[in-house]
Each structure stands twice: as structure tokens, then as C-alpha cells.
Amino acid sequence: SGKALATKDSEIVIEFKRPPHLMFTDLNEADMIPNILSMCIQPDEGIHLKLEAKVPDSHLTEDVDMEFHYRSSFKGNSLPDAYERLLLDAIRGDASLFTRSDGIEAAWRLIDPVIQGWEQADDAPPMATYARESWGPSAADELLGNNGRIWRHGCMHE
């Protein structure tokens, strides 16, 4: 999730660690995919679980996908986008999706010293920037790449 990225997706992804040892001797660790839980917040709300499962009565495994998405499950219903839902809740007087003012003030109490420290430090690293409609700063790719990871672009099911 970010501002002015290539797509307007918000997703939370949990990539589970590999097991410390392989239970099935015929498997090659390099061929195994990591188990991934993906929660797509927008634009197509849903949840997706991708895992490596053992084929019954075999020493083989297979990639398995389990997913649920509102748009595909409730095809006949009109689903509001994020801002439509927010505005509708505001009209109805439902403030559950809104941040309270004391929460906003608490967030700024935490963030303001960080910003001030960054601005005042002579040895602070430069702020990583990126071109509009790109996938973000290259420094973000390097950060994950150092651990053999990559950023995911867009919700998993697409």
C-alpha cells in the first residue's frame, strides 16, 4: 500500500517461514513454495491462502490455493468501493471506520519527534522517493532483496 503507485491495491501478506526440516524425503527444498496468507483490503476485498500440501497416498506435494473474494462470491450484489462505504457510514452516523481525534493526536505525538530528528540529523539517510505510478523506491526492493524476499505487486488472486 502506498500513494501514487502503479495500482490502487492495499494488501496485507504474511509469508510463513519454511519448516526447519522436510518431513517428506522425496522433496527438494528449493522446489517448495512458501505458505502465504494474503488479505486484500482493496479494491477486491478477500482472503487468499497459498500453501504446499502433501498429495494423499504419495510422497509428492502440490501447490494449493484457497481463496474467498466478495465480488466473486456475491456477484449479484453491488459492492460499494472504499469511499462510497465511508460516505454512506458517515451519512448513517456510523463512526466505526473513522479515527477518533485523540487517536490522531497520539499518532502525531509519536511521529513528530521522528520527523524532527530526521530533519535535524546531519547523518540521516536521504528520504527514498519514487516516480508516480511506479512500484515505489528501488531502496524498498533492496531492503527486501537483502533477505531473499521480493515485494508483491497487486492482490494475489489477480
Strand-helix topology:
Elements: E1 10-15, E2 36-42, E3 46-54, E4 61-69, H1 70-73, H2 82-92, H3 101-120, H4 138-145
Describe this structure in words.
The chain is an alpha+beta fold. The protein has a single domain, classed as 2-Layer Sandwich (Dihydrodipicolinate Reductase, domain 2), CATH 3.30.360. It contains four helices and four strands; from the N terminus they run ββββαααα. A four-stranded antiparallel sheet has the order 1-2-3-4. The protein is extended and about 60 Å long. The chain starts with 9 loop residues before the first strand and ends in a 13-residue tail after the last helix. The model has no long low-confidence stretch (mean pLDDT 83).
CATH architecture: 2-Layer Sandwich
Termini gap:
16 Å
Tell me the total number of β-strands: 4
- Order of the strands making up the biggest sheet: 1-2-3-4
Identify the CATH class.
Answer: Alpha Beta
Average pLDDT level: 83
Uncertain segments of ≥5 residues (pLDDT<50)? none
Total of helices: 4
Helix amount: 25-40%
The computed structural class is alpha+beta
